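Open question from group meeting: does this chain pack into something compact, or does most of it stay loose? Before anyone orders reagents, we agreed to write out a predicted structure and look at it together. Recording both the input and the output here so the notebook holds the full record.
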Amino acid sequence: MLLAGCVSNRIDVVETGVRPDLAGRGLALAPAVDGEPDLARPVGARLEAAGLPVREAPGQGYLVEVSYSERPLKVGAYAGPRPAADAEPAAWVAPPQTRRWWWAPQRVRLCTLSARVVDAASGGEAYRVRASARGRQPDCGEAGETLSAAVAAKLAATP
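Structure tokens returned:
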């Protein structure tokens, strides 16, 4: 069956907060944790290619923290104050999804790359962008490049 091999190439991008002027105040990428892959490097390379200089330290600018997650579609992402079972659908960052009959069991995953922009002076989060795509391969296969491109495009855009 032809549908069994298809996975949507759609990238969902969600922004939280007002995108700051990264070009005006500057930015630095948070370093990777020892032994972990450097997820910020591809995003940083794309930002520099877009004309945003990436510094070693944020100074009075912004610190950009990049993270990656991968979860089964039937598991949602919730960040609200009360138990998720009682939450309204709008309170979910990503609501759980019911497996469709054409999806291979336990294979379809939601791959997400997030960038959190922190104001170095106050330590408060100024902006967050999250790009997600469905994937079936371990580590979501080639999704990393498209997710990095989507996140970098939002970060590099002029507010």
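Observations to bring back to the group:
The beta strands are 12-17, 27-29, 54-55, 62-72, 77-78, 92-94, 109-119, 125-135.
The longest helix spans residues 143-156.
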